[in-house]
């Protein structure tokens, strides 16, 4: 049941939050990190600047909340087929990261910049409260793929001696390392190879080579 | 043979480079990224500012050269024992990354910031020429551990279907992911677990669980 009175007058906080985050998303993708301005977000979302700054004191705080919203739009399915579920999830992560590379920039071919993800990594390192927010975001989000791995271990598919965290570090780590450090591409084929490779290492019973020598 | 004349008068370029890089190293560790100033480097290295800026136009360019110098101080041994060589090398990498976390900051206990590494990642994303320099740096440096993995494959220890790049992405990726994203610690025990886990996945013949269930 909804109380009609709540729909009248000033919008409820969650309405304002939603409008702010959607305005922030559009502005970020139009402008990129450098030219992303809080005042413009407030104007587009039709909220008072004080409302915006009370909720998110800097653009980095707001962008962390936006990343949380974007991450939450990627489902983490548990179909019982661990390989497939990991490939689907990590392909979506890679697509999201690749999309963030070109945000607000002309996106020239061969552009290997990590884009806005690198800016948020630096903001997290610079400001302890932004860092706390980023780490909380990833802890919350990573709980979903970690649970996938835990359930596969309960089904006897993964070795008991190898932790889900270690397995997930190898998977997500490889994608972020390519994005942030080496600039190598992270495409769908790479994600499949990576998942196959990591699952050989994590399997409860020795598995045959998923990619035998190509002759 | 050295020509005595070359020792007199203005120092040769490599002397100036060395003095600049050593001054940069000291200043970075004293001050951190934010308060690292090029003019101060020139003064301490006793070189003209024009000399410094001609060689490295911004502090990010200079810091990439400094990271190259620091990386080159870490040897990559090839003793024929792949597991040991990887553990030694990656422990040194982790120690270096942990050291960079606290550079120029009070280093409070529980501080999980990625520090100056995150700043360089952001600079690489922001400025195409810094990005090119960082990627060239890692391509050059990573050639050494990649060669270790290639030689182990030639000895029949690693599967032919799994590329050295993919194996190394899992190793280095996990360390950088913890440093830059989740803020989890990267200690010596973690490095050993990681190497064991990745080598199970990469082994030519199915290997037993290196870490059976602890009861």
Question: Can you describe this structure in just a few lines?
Answer:
With 215 residues, chain A is mainly alpha-helical. Chain A contains 10 helices and no strands.
Which helices and strands occur, and which strands form pairs?
The structure is a homodimer of 215-residue chains.
Chain A: H1 4-7, H2 13-31, H3 38-45, H4 49-55, H5 59-72, H6 82-101, H7 116-126, H8 128-154, H9 164-182, H10 188-202
Helix pairs in contact in A: 2-3, 2-5, 3-4, 5-8, 6-8, 6-9, 6-10, 7-8, 8-9, 9-10
In the CATH hierarchy, the architecture of the largest domain in chain A is: Orthogonal Bundle
Whole-angstrom Rg of chain A? 20 Å
State the CATH class of the largest domain in chain A: Mainly Alpha
Largest beta sheet of chain A, briefly? none
Q: What percent of residues of chain A are in strands?
A: under 5%
**Total beta-strand segments of chain A:** 0
CATH superfamily of the largest domain in chain A, called what? Tetracycline Repressor, domain 2
Counted by DSSP, the helix tally of chain A is 10
Which chains have the largest interface?
A-B, 59 and 59 residues
Order of helices and strands of chain A: HHHHHHHHHH
Oligomer: homodimer
Shape of chain A: elongated
**First-residue to last-residue Cα separation of chain A:** 65 Å
Mean pLDDT of chain A: 89
User: Helicity level of chain A, as a percent range?
Assistant: 55-70%
How many structural domains of chain A?
2
Return residue spans of chain A where pLDDT drops below 50 for at least 5 consecutive residues: 1-6
Please state the structural category of chain A.
mainly alpha
CATH topology annotation of the largest domain in chain A: Tetracycline Repressor, domain 2
